[in-house]
Amino acid sequence: MKPCPDPRVGIIGVGYWGSKHVRVLHSLESVSSVAIIDSREERLRPLVKSFPSLRGFTDLDAALPHVDALVIATPPTTHVPIALKALSAGKHVLVEKPLATSSAGAQQLVDTADQQDVVLMAGHTFEYNSAVWRLRELVQSGALGELFYIDSARLNLGLYQTDVNVIWDLAPHDVSIINLLMGRQPSSVQAWGSRHAHRRFEDVAYLRMTYEDIGMSAHIHVSWLDPCKVRRVTVVGSRKMAVYNDLSAEERIRVHDKSVSFPAGDADLTQPPMSYRYGDITSPYVPAAEPLAVQDEHFVTCVATGARNRTPGRSGLAVVQVLEAAQTSLQSGRPTSLTAHGGVRADLAVSGARP
Q: Where does the GFO/IDH/MocA-like oxidoreductase domain start and stop, copy by copy (predicted)?
């Protein structure tokens, strides 16, 4: 890839997330200019007023000659056609989660980026979260012991989407986190979901990601219909347990020195069948940094210098394969093997150092 120093960056789709990218990218000295693209002029005007140096466009074709890289923050079903147009024009691209709404679409983006020799980054923001990396260190180092299970909950009242269900909207975060913790995809996925306030799309869903070779499962609960906002990942091991709470201002990671053991040999009917150990609760230091800012700065660095991309298109593809398998399971009512959706079931390479 040919480095592109001081890139000109465009953001297409300047709604809730797109406007956050505008704020971050506008603050980076390594970005020479920022353009915003949205067909709705009422979204462009307040941003141009807040950031007068921005250049606004209502059409992507008109904007492409004025950018070297593009951040795509549009509805998920539009990601592939927009990204393909940008990649085919030789532009570097960061796509908000999910990378695509099908494995075939995600693979097409990966192949096109390879052919054009440009950066394709999946917007897996939590993989740029220092607390998630601290949790990964606890898992990978064996500090928690043998893994029993992982449980993740991402709940809130809204925001309802108009083109995808709650699995495609919220679960990409949890799947990418769990892929990072485990260093690989699961062997199979099973999903359950219900439609309550939405007639077309499931607004509550549960996923079970199974790792057959180690006899472990990871569970994901996502909901647009819950009275409490929850952003929590729990990892339970044979020696210790860890909880990552993204809503905690200070103790985002808490390690519980607790475990349960079963007596070896023949059971003594006169004794309790299990023994429980209770120890201290510790909270390791986690550096404070905005994950979106870390991600966007990394994207710009990759474009400017050719540095290795920590969440490349293949990482996005791996997440889409799990989501697609979950969607298939949701419709069939049965577990779905990842091999049926192109999952390699091999170790996922983790690029770059901890944020």
A: 134-241
CA distance 127 to 135: 11
What amino acid occupies position 13?
G
CATH 3.40.50.2300 fits 8-126+292-308, yes or no: no
As a whole number of angstroms, the distance between CA 19 and CA 34 comes to 12
3-state SS of the chain: helix, strand, coil percent to 5? 35, 30, 35
- Going 4 to 10 to 16 to 21, the CA torsion angle's sign is positive
Residues whose CB falls within 8 Å of the CB of residue 232, separated by 6 or more in sequence, listed in order: 152, 153, 243, 244, 245, 246, 247
Tens of pLDDT along 168-194?
Answer: 999 999 999 999 999 999 999 999 999
* Domain layout of the chain by residue ranges: 8-126+292-308, 127-286+319-341
- Please name the fold of domain 127-286+319-341: Dihydrodipicolinate Reductase; domain 2 (3.30.360)
pLDDT, mean of residues 258-281: 77
DSSP notation for 298-330 = HHHHHHHH-PPPSSBHHHHHHHHHHHHHHHHHH
Query: How does strand 241-245 pair with strand 253-261?
Result: antiparallel
pTM: 0.94
pLDDT score of 54: 97
Alpha helices (H) along the chain: 16-26, 41-50, 60-63, 79-88, 103-116, 130-140, 166-182, 291-305, 313-332
Note whether 55 and 28 are within 8 A (CB): no
Cβ–Cβ < 8 Å for 60, 85: yes
CB atoms within 10 A of CB 314: 20
Angle at CA 141, nearest 5°, toward 279 and 136? 90
